[in-house]
Amino acid sequence: MRNGKYGIDAPYVPIGYVLGGSLACGLGIANALTDGFVTSIAPLTVGVLMLLCAGIYLHTTFRGKFRIWADVIDRLDLAADSRVLDLGCGRGAVLLMAAERLGEHGRAVGIDLWRSVDQSGNSTEVTLKNAEAEGVADRVELRTGDMTELPFADESFDVVVSSLAIHNIKDPGGREAAVREAVRVLKPGGRLAFADLRVAREYAKTLSDLSMQDVSLRRQGRRGWWSGPWVTTRLVTARKPVRKSNIATHTN
Length: 252
What we know:
The chain is an alpha/beta fold. The chain has helices spanning 12-34, 41-76, 93-99, 124-133, 172-185, 200-209, 244-251; strands at residues 83-87, 107-112, 140-144, 157-163, 186-196, 213-219, 225-228, 231-232, 234-239. The chain is built from seven helices and nine strands.
């Protein structure tokens, strides 16, 4: 259970489902009253399916994605003093879950353009209120910026995460730039975890091209369905190689 308020991802999608489903059901009922039951079957079927899609979508945005990320963060096994970066942090769903695993010397940094079209009520003020509600405000830092040009030094984070954010960059070159930037700011030996939709396959390819280790792409099952199995969450994970010079120094 979360104490913050995290809004709805891409709120126009479930709104569209509800409106379309309601209109179709209304048409079906009208047909049944005027022309008989047979003429109502098609619109009623479409309407019920659209409303079902809306229900699945809302379950994923309110519950499913949190269950996915609880498992992901468990596997990341964050050290108390880790520095974590969340690309497109929004209202802090993932950012604050990571912050809860950190100690007083750890830091969870979120960067976003704060667009409400991507998440309802998206703003720094709301995210800071959520951080206070979750009791992690002292470990959280928010920045306004573009994930394709991160305002951070090379190798400054132990972990980089992102949830359903990079796909909002419509240009494939921009998405690749965001992944490259994530790798740039990641420390050697650091870990990366991106949850996204179909374009997550692009991230896996870019990470492989950048010689990242242990690159993995996995579907997240029913808890990650955004209306149905045809729009499902995919998780990309990888690790940044440790330079041989660092290994030699540590050995000596």
